[in-house]
Design brief:
There is one protein chain. By secondary structure, this protein is of the alpha+beta class. Helices cover about 60% and strands about 15% of the residues. The protein contains seven helices and four strands. Helix 2 packs across helix 3 (about 45-75) and helix 4 (about 80-95) packs antiparallel against helix 7 (about 125-135). The termini are far apart.
Length: about 180
């Protein structure tokens, strides 16, 4: 016959099994919590999304910069001196070659100047531009850089009416018109 105590207490292996299941559940909850925190911290949080966006933007910039530097290296339109670039620009305008004339401008502004020169050509004012450039003299003002040169046209009172700034393209060692 069995004692009543034996019937009330669970077998020892059942208690061990229950303990193991409880431990496994706790470990599983901890693992899920750590995994959720990892995913939140590295992928879903606003900070993580901002970091990923900055990384993508930086990679996009690096591709652009590499292409831009290659474009600068291949940009050989211009002279080895600022004066030579201005003369080449005037020669292209004299020949009414607006496409060639626009290539003497820095890359970043070339399209705007091409359009502007076409408008000036339509208005039949190319000769005015040519005469203005031919009257330009090297400025006495220090531009603060050996890679930048300013030319000016002064009026009868000695005041600057018109300024032309040229910049050295360091990748191709060619002078480009930056602004007029």
């Amino acid at each position: 016959m069995m004692h009543s105590e034996d019937q009330l207490s669970p077998p020892a292996h059942t208690a061990s099994r229950t303990l193991l299941i409880s431990i496994a559940i706790c470990v599983g909850i901890i693992a899920l919590s750590v995994g959720a925190l990892f995913i939140w911290g590295n992928y879903l949080s606003p900070e993580a999304q901002s970091t990923h966006t900055m990384q993508k933007n930086y990679e996009t910039y690096q591709v652009w910069e590499q292409q831009h530097n290659q474009d600068l290296t291949l940009d050989t339109y211009g002279g080895t001196t600022p004066e030579e670039t201005l003369q080449l620009f005037v020669d292209a305008l004299d020949d009414e070659d607006i496409e060639l004339a626009s290539k003497y401008f820095v890359l970043d502004q070339r399209e705007q100047w091409a359009e502007g020169l076409k408008n000036i050509q339509r208005e039949e004012k190319i000769d005015e531009i040519i005469n203005t450039i031919k009257n330009a003299q090297a400025s006495e003002r220090d531009t603060g850089s050996e890679n930048q040169k300013e030319f000016v046209v002064k009026n009868k009172n000695g005041e600057v009416d018109y300024a032309i700034i040229l910049t050295l393209n360091n990748q191709s060692n060619i002078w480009k018109i930056e602004s007029m």
